Amino acid sequence: GRLVFSVSDDGRGIDVDTVRARASRLGIHSGDSLRRMSPQDVLMLCTVPGLSTSDSVDEVSGRGVGLDVVRRAVEEAGGRLHLETSSSGTRVDLILPPARVFTHGVVVRSDAHFFALASDQVSQLVAVRHDALRRTAGHAFLAMEGTNLPLVDLHDVLGLEPSRRTHRFVAVSTHTGHPFGVLVDEVLRPAELVVEPLHWSLGPWPGLTGTTSVQGGDVAWMVDLDALATSLRPTTWSPQPVQARHRILIVDDSATSRTLLRNILDNADFETSVAMNGEEAWSSLQERHFDVVVTDAEMPHLDGFALIERIRADPSFAHLPTVLITSLERQTDLARGADAGADAYIVKGRFDRQELLRTLQRLL
Prior knowledge:
The protein is an alpha/beta fold. It has eleven helices and 19 strands.
């Protein structure tokens, strides 16, 4: 169950007595302790930092750091180093667990979580502004080279809160022949990675196939971009020409509510227009096309219930989706909204940005 790399030479070997004398001189062990140690244990002192049997320092030896570096690298990979020597040569064995994988990669971060991406699966890293991202049919895209590059946001994969950063990064993968990007908060550094594969399922988090340690002792999840793309890509998920944004009509007599809703929907890449009451909204519907109407219930001139009833009574708007957002939360109010023909009813006291976006994605 171990993988062994053996490196040997045909020199005259390592003088164990010289190693013992150097260790005593450096104060690594007391003289009595060194005398009681077996030849094999004394030989392994060659991996202690600063111990060298060379009488002089040159470009390649004499500093006592070579075998120390090798030992630390092997131990970090979960293995061990073994030395054997005789008058006909020395052999160094690097004994490693075969389950571990060495790879070049780049360490990234989303929220407080670290992730590692294999370099051979990343074709480029692109810095983007949040407002440069597009959303179509519930999926995020980045306009690149005349097409919409499909994106996977690691915040969404792990169920994290949406990122509030105005600037983020996209790791572009073309490895599988189906280009897509992974949206992350920060790119930290390239690194040599020692990956420990997972031997158990992470269930709803596809593409997380192992773990690796990063500088500072933190643990990063290894993301297999091929597996992530296979598990998340819908059948039509591929780069496509840029399409027009969905147009939302916001109807509310409160300036604060209109501004809040408009900011949320604009940031989600919808095109928005506003109206201060039902009559003004009805006029807007006569002048241009809208994909969804999001309206308050209680307004002067024409309230939200009456507006939706008027929309449903007009054959040209019979299939226009409508959403009521109101502070009214009694069962009779919900029933009234359903009777009017509202497709969704959201209570302001329990308002949630993600619920609104999920509702719109369902209706579009």
